[in-house]
Task: structure prediction
Amino acid sequence: MQKELIEMQIVRKAAPHLQVLDNEGFELYAPTDFNEIPALVAQTGRSAQSPMMSLNRNDFTQGNAFWLFLMVDGVCVGGCAAHLIDLRDEPFEHYLRRSSQALYGRDEDPIASIAPPIANEIGGRLIYIGELEIHPQFRGRIKALTAFIRVTQALCAMKWPDFDWMYAFIPEGHVKLTGNYGFTWQMPYAIR
Result:
């Protein structure tokens, strides 16, 4: 019964954001076939997937990852991805350093530093949200961007309700949008 109540609360929180997307002329598409994703990502204007979410470098499953795309008249104009990472007892810093070295194909650790609060606080079952890209012709629509991220977060919470943390790495040029993204804790220079 508790799970159903939580899901209903999430749906209620997401509904206004879905309405914003509808009013702005967007539809959402979550492919179940990972083979569709590279072509959809390319339509957003993104030149390549990051190593952390690259389909060529990771063995994602329907149970641990999904992509959500913004569509206009059947054309993909934006997208992002989510990935469940179950660290169990592995420290987050260890995971970041180990996986970054492997994913970026480095002989040595490519991370210079991780902010202590990040290394010391984050752990357990994590949801990483990344790969956010909006086609240049559709950028600047802050209400739609906010709605898109909030719907993505709601889907994550419904898909993986027993998560401990949901996070994203936001580039310096997008820091002014962090409030729109809806993450409640912000750590400048979390990782270098």
In short: The chain has a mean pLDDT of 92.
